[in-house]
Design a protein that fits this description.
Strand content: 15-25%
Shape: elongated
Protein name: Terminase large subunit gp17-like C-terminal domain-containing protein
Bound molecules: adenosine-5'-triphosphate, magnesium ion
Radius of gyration: 30 Å
CATH class of the largest domain: Alpha Beta
CATH superfamily of the largest domain: P-loop containing nucleotide triphosphate hydrolases
InterPro entries: P-loop_NTPase
Structural class: alpha/beta
Number of helices: 14
Number of strands: 14
Oligomer: single chain
Length: about 400
């Protein structure tokens, strides 16, 4: 190698170990956006980095290049990559790695297969490679010790606990780096634990941080009747029109919007109607009784469920009373006793199934029963299929503190 060439190689190496983002741009002929740069620098500086992010922010693009940056600038080194399914390893992350190798401005003397890149070197005692592993065989993560080690978990919310345990093995010795990156789809699990742990450097990416949203806020999206994107600086990355559509279909407070647009961990299970934080706030909220006292009875005469008798004044609910006698006479007598004691002016009951004879009998005794049919016609027939859906929606609003006076 001529002296000038050697100097150039050394300069490049120095750049790699101070500004990995600029090294990546130079070597792989690309332009990173701000958070992609921040992730590169974080992996250089911090043993552990966790990145919950919105969709299509360039996570895999960046991770693939970080794998190569680490591998090419650390000898001897082992890089272990994983994702929840082997398809995600092979067809997504490793496709990105192969693309970067083919775009490289410097010759990379390596042997590249679908999920492995071995660097050419002469010392049989040393390992120098990167590998993609699936999650069905956690034992494959064992034994990958080296002087330099990088572990990358893409789509990290979907990685099982067994893998979170297994990756600690290669991280237990040497100079080690861990990058966990993905959509934060689960409110519990290893990805969330990492995000809550003080030993990780955390980088959150919202759609509104990404370069196609320059000058565009959530408020702009919320106010717009429709949205057309002009020419975008990074056409492959998340676009405002998609976020506008998600706002229309999912709504700002949905778990899906939190995860895929804002890059935030969901506050409740993805399919839950109520957010944990809203339930928590509702329990703490002080609500004064108002209006008249009404009761509701949910009858259960079979199975292990209890019959429940509850009263409320406005949105203030008093103690609920439950009993598990499956006897019609007992239930009838108990409802009459409770209603005479608390003097409710109305008792809501579902006119369905085993409870029907009780309702009919209570009515003949002059108890003020109001039949409430969840399968019945809703007030807003355009929005809701039946009363049940409509009432759940209104209840959700009450949990959110948006409708105090139903
Ligand atoms: N810096 C960049 N320059 C050019 N194209 C980019 C850049 N970053 C990402 N892309 C392109 O944008 C698209 C989305 O990127 P990528 O797949 O990495 O996003 P992601 O965040 O991993 O998406 P997902 O949420 O689906 O996992 C890809 O086509 C990728 O090649
Ligand atoms: Mg990805």
């Amino acid at each position: 190698m001529v002296v000038a060439e050697k100097e150039q190689v050394e300069k490049l190496k120095e750049l790699a170990l101070t500004y990995p983002d600029i090294w990546i741009e130079k070597v792989f002929n690309c332009k990173l956006w701000e958070k992609q740069r921040e992730i590169c620098r974080s992996v250089l500086k911090n043993p552990r980095t966790v990145v919950p992010s919105c969709s299509a922010s360039g996570k895999t693009f960046d991770s693939g290049r970080i794998v190569l940056w680490f591998l090419l600038n650390h000898y001897p080194s082992t890089v272990v990559t994983t994702a929840p399914t082997f398809r995600q390893v092979e067809e997504i992350l490793w496709k990105e790695i192969a693309a970067a190798v083919s775009q490289s401005n410097v010759p990379i003397n390596c042997h590249l297969t679908k999920t492995r890149i071995g660097m050419a070197h002469t010392d049989p005692e040393r390992d120098w490679f990167a590998i993609g592993l699936s999650t069905d065989q956690p034992e494959k993560f064992q034994g990958h010790h080296n002087i330099y080690v990088l572990v990358v978990g893409d789509e990290a919310s979907g990685l099982p606990d067994t893998i979170y345990q297994a990756i600690e093995n290669p991280l237990s010795s040497g100079y080690t780096r861990l990058l966990l990156i993905g959509n934060p789809t689960q409110s519990t699990g290893g990805f969330k634990d990492a995000f809550d742990s003080p030993i990780y450097n955390k980088i959150t990416i919202s759609a509104f941080d990404t370069p196609n949203f320059k000058g565009i806020t959530l408020d702009d999206i919320k106010k717009a009747d429709t949205w057309e994107d002009g020419e975008l600086p990074f056409p492959g990355l998340i676009k405002p029109r998609w976020v506008w559509e998600r706002f229309q279909e999912w709504g700002e407070n949905s778990a899906l919007f939190q995860v895929y647009v804002l890059g935030q961990f969901p506050q409740a299970g993805e399919r839950n109607l109520f957010r944990l934080s809203d339930i928590d706030a509702a329990v703490r909220r002080e609500i004064k009784p108002e209006g008249v006292r009404v009761a509701s009875v949910d009858i259960s005469l079979e199975g292990g469920d209890e019959t429940v008798y509850a009263t409320r004044m406005g949105n203030h609910v008093f103690d609920m009373k439950g009993w598990s006698h499956q006897d019609t006479n007992y239930t009838e007598g108990r409802v009459i006793r409770e209603y005479r004691t608390d003097k409710s002016v109305e008792i809501f009951m579902e006119p369905q199934g085993m409870g029907m004879p009780i309702i009919t009998h209570l009515e003949t005794l002059g108890v003020p029963v109001t039949r409430w049919n969840p399968a019945g016609k809703p007030v807003d027939t355009e929005l809701f299929m039946n009363q049940r859906a409509e009432q759940y929606f209104l209840l959700k609003q009450r949990f959110e503190g948006r409708d105090r006076h139903p």
